[in-house]
Amino acid sequence: MPQQNFENDYIKTRIVDGRQEIFDCLRGKYVAMTPEENVRQMFVRHLIDGKRYPAGLMGNEIAINQNGRERRCDTVVFDRRGCPLMIVEYKAPSVKITQEVFNQVYRYNTVLRVKYLTVCNGRQLFCCRVDYDANKAVFLKDVPCYDDL
Predict the structure, then answer these.
(1) Is the Cβ–Cβ distance between 115 and 137 less than 8 Å?
(2) Cβ atoms of residues 13 and 20 within 8 Å
(3) Which pLDDT score, from 0 to 100, does residue 31 have?
(4) How far apart are CA 148 and CA 51, in angstroms?
(5) What are the pLDDT digits (tens) for 20-72?
(6) CATH of 13-148, one of 3.90.1570.30, 2.60.40.10, 2.130.10.10, 3.90.226.10
(7) Residue 70's beta-bridge partner residues?
(8) Where are the domains of the chain?
(9) Can you tell me the distance from the alpha carbon of 134 to that of 68, in angstroms, rounded to the nearest whole number?
(10) Closest Cα partner for 126 from 134, 112, 136, 137?
(11) pTM exceeds 0.70, yes or no
């Protein structure tokens, strides 16, 4: 995948008590600014503004129960009926996207069984469509627009 640039003029930040915060448009509140959170907010804006994903059909920090343990998917995209459609996992730009990162999102998918899995560190982006019949993942050149999912 080519390097990604998700710079966005609509990202709001502020400093409170010496801590930098970034506005999460899906949760409707400011959260601590970390490198991973910055990637999340930039990519969410890219999905909304560039790929026409409805903000109302996306959620951040979605809790799932995996083998009796609560886990949180970074972002889940839902279809118009409210069924999970895509899991997005974020990493800080300094974190390499490795097989272990994919294993993490695959584990989440054992619960949600979505059609698309996406991993992004702000520099690299991988998106695949899960082919359950062939038991494989088909990597795409880019994240599809919402209406093409």
Answers:
(1) no
(2) yes
(3) 96
(4) 10
(5) 999 999 999 999 999 999 999 999 999 999 999 999 999 999 999 988 999 99
(6) 3.90.1570.30
(7) 65
(8) 13-148
(9) 29
(10) 137
(11) yes
The tokens of 60 are what?
Answer: 């951040």
- The CA R_g of the chain, rounded to the nearest whole Å, is 15
d(C-alpha 75, C-alpha 138), whole Å: 20
* Nearest CA among 80, 72, 74 for reference residue 118: 74
User: One-letter amino acid identity for 87?
Assistant: I
What is the DSSP annotation of the chain?
--------TT--EEEETTEEEEEETTTTEEEE--HHHHHHHHHHHIIIIIS---GGGEEEEEEEEETTEEEEEEEEEE-TTS-EEEEEEE--TTS---HHHHHHHHHHHHHH--SEEEEE-SS-EEEEEEETTTTEEEEESSPPPGGG-
Amino acid at 139: F
